[in-house]
Amino acid sequence: MKVSTILAMSLVTSSLLFGKTTIMEQAKKAGLKAIPTTDSEISKIIDPNHILTKEKVELGKKLFFEPRLSKSSLISCNTCHNLATGGVDGLAAAIGDKWTPNPHHLNSPTVYNAVFYDAQFWDGRSHNLEDQAQGPMQATPEMASPKALVEERINSIPEYVEAFKKAYGENVKIDFTTITATIGLFERTLITPSRFDDFLNGDENALSVSEKEGLKLFIDKGCVSCHSGIALGGTMQPFQVAGKYKFASIGDFKGDKNGLVKTPTLRNITQTAPYFHNGAIWNLADAVKEMGSTQLGIKISDEEATKIVTFFNALEGKKPTITYPQLPKSTNKTPKPIID
Amino acid sequence: MKVSTILAMSLVTSSLLFGKTTIMEQAKKAGLKAIPTTDSEISKIIDPNHILTKEKVELGKKLFFEPRLSKSSLISCNTCHNLATGGVDGLAAAIGDKWTPNPHHLNSPTVYNAVFYDAQFWDGRSHNLEDQAQGPMQATPEMASPKALVEERINSIPEYVEAFKKAYGENVKIDFTTITATIGLFERTLITPSRFDDFLNGDENALSVSEKEGLKLFIDKGCVSCHSGIALGGTMQPFQVAGKYKFASIGDFKGDKNGLVKTPTLRNITQTAPYFHNGAIWNLADAVKEMGSTQLGIKISDEEATKIVTFFNALEGKKPTITYPQLPKSTNKTPKPIID
Fold this sequence. Notes:
2 copies of one chain form a homodimer.
Chain A: H1 3-18, H2 23-29, H3 39-46, H4 54-64, H5 77-80, E1 95-96, E2 100-101, H6 129-132, H7 134-138, H8 147-155, H9 158-168, H10 176-188, H11 195-200, H12 209-220, E3 236-238, E4 260-262, H13 284-296, H14 302-313
Antiparallel strand pairs in A: 1-2, 3-4
């Protein structure tokens, strides 16, 4: 068979499957965006103000894994946003200090790719990761640390003081704001390029045929109306637009003051069950169907949901390689763990 | 000044400080042993039966960090034996499932260098790490997982099943014993060579003068009667030989059936506060003085304790570089976290 004939057949197949425009073009038109391929392009997105340095990120990593930032000295950021398990804890609702469940029965969102969000927290009350990190550290059902305790713990450890000076200069004030902001800077680097990015960046073969079918359904059904951009989510959207969420009675979360809810990212969604703000749905296909009825006012069949989930596999990204840190030792001045 | 004169003076200084035999010789005579320098010599100690393979150790690492091995899916081996903080949690008594403190008020011992111990647990009831790993996983105040739950969780995750087959062969039975044993195999690799090893291995300058002074005191005071071998500890010894432990009333631990208690390792001891089986003493110099009165029947002065602690700095070891693992995702068959 001539190459030209094969090419022609291939074009026919493409058009049968995906209409006149390619699915790649459709995806881009629908607002789906790739993580760029070059460091400088990535940097424009994750570090627009050019504040990331190696020293800050390395220090932020240590602090992200630092249990002494919690009142008990047992809970770190990584406890609920575990980088080994998709950046989440895999629980329906977060568990924190004294084994306290999140009082609103809220599910821990993934920290991976959170830098691509417009807003942080389910109610979008924070607009960047540096600000976000202040919340859970102080919240009594989470890390339960008063600001002063965090500051005292870190300042009591000479290696940390030295690391802050290296990162910010000799006159740095190692206060709660700087400590939490440094964690946010590390979190900016937690991005996970996937086969879907390769696809959007031009590699037609990065997705399998069935993944492309799933992507087409994902677009055609209207999922992209909320799940778009680089994060495939991360913007504030109305919830229960077309119907009541089946598990609305679990917890008391009602969204922000306008009832808007932050759309979760779909990147690594296959690794971050359970789903929804209250973690009530464990099966991803069920979650897709629930979105059809609550948000789009359509019935998504089992077969369609399965196909869409097949596409989601292509959103599993390559996680940054993290060397588990060695944290500096406490001193006799370090405030003790508070267990009560 | 002639070189020969300098050498002669140096010998005089040595003999003034350390008597006729060198402190290096004294340390060896006292039963202090180095971690060997070659892989084959290390292997003879940590893997005498030649069972370690790269596949088993890598799988064991994943399982060590695997929170789904706990009933709640929130607690891993690394929660209490945190490799970032000297292999311990830094709490007086361990906290486990449902925020339960250890019922005997027992302190989590470090997992680093535990392979060099004769016995595991404070009462020495387990003789190797593979066996030890079975305990905390099942204990209701720790990870609280029934054997069947552990087996069901792991067998529900195809990537784990595949990894076990690669490590042990196609016919492997992925049961509780194999799962916990694999964790023990990983733990065998957690050894931390230090400047003290360099010293015992012949590098006279690996310790500072004041560290050598501390070492000499450590030997002369008799600390080596229990803190010897490679671990500088790890054997079962009588406790409160010479006097009552100041905090004996905290918790109800009385040692094994003969009242013997496992001597903790002194490797990385500067990083593993608080001290003693019940974690009652936070200051290392205080711990040294307490040992003088309870075990040796002598008064160790503040100055002497400080010098001995100075020696302990040389026992801070180089931790193995651990790449934080990416754990395989749960499936719809994976038993859910149990939070109650």
